[in-house]
Amino acid sequence: MLIQLCRVLAVVSCFSLIACKEYKVKEVKDFRLYVNSDDVELNAAVSELAAQYNKDVGANALTVVDNKAQANSNISFVKNLADDGGSKLGLGQWITTEQEKNNFSATGAQKQITVYHSMSLEFDTANFAGKLKGMTDKTSDEYKHLYHLFCHEVGHGMQLNHSDDKTNVMYKSIPDHYNRKIDFVGYFAYVRSYLKISAPVENKDVLI
Ligand SMILES: [Zn+2]
Fold first, then answer.
1. How do the domains of the chain map onto residue ranges?
2. Can you name the CATH fold of 28-93+119-194?
3. 176: CB partners within 8 A, 6+ apart
4. What is the pTM of this model?
5. How far is the centre of ligand 1, averaged over its atoms, from the C-alpha of 23 (Å)?
6. How far is the CA of 156 from the centre of ligand 1 (A)?
7. Residue 104 alpha carbon to ligand 1 centre in Å
8. 3 state SS of 76
9. Mean pLDDT per 10-residue run, the chain (208 residues)?
10. Hey, is 64 helix, strand or coil?
């Protein structure tokens, strides 16, 4: 993740040094997620969590696709991810790829750089599958845990790092029992600004 961050920073500083009229930068943040699992319940849960996510963003931030060829991002379920370092329930990484193109016109050459954003997410199978029974009840601790975990890993996929604030979605531990407030309003405000969605929507359905 650090390598990706450095690369992004390097690209940003490089762009700022170059005269704007010679370079045009386009960013594409169209996340099309493919679930690498044949498990029907896991697939259905991801689709439901993504639908709730889009509802809370107020736009189609994530698209779950059935066909791997249509995807630019993936979700995998990994056995014993929890054992890697003791308590890892998920892993989220952002990925950027750049494409350069030279456009020639009467006014001269212009370089077009397109930055494509995508993400790679992993969830510990036992933890995720063990909480699926909560998917039918959005007030259950299991549902809150899965939605919080999903938002947290997608947050990494949208270039967020960990926060030391226990109320922040990006705090490094995801509780099993919800006896503290989680600031989903602030989280989705970030997501809208990251996706450049200008009209904020009111979040009435967020978990607190
Ligand atoms: Zn994390």
1. 28-93+119-194
2. Collagenase (Catalytic Domain) (3.40.390)
3. 141, 145
4. 0.83
5. 35
6. 7
7. 44
8. strand
9. 50 48 84 97 98 95 96 95 76 94 79 93 96 96 97 97 96 88 94 82 48
10. strand
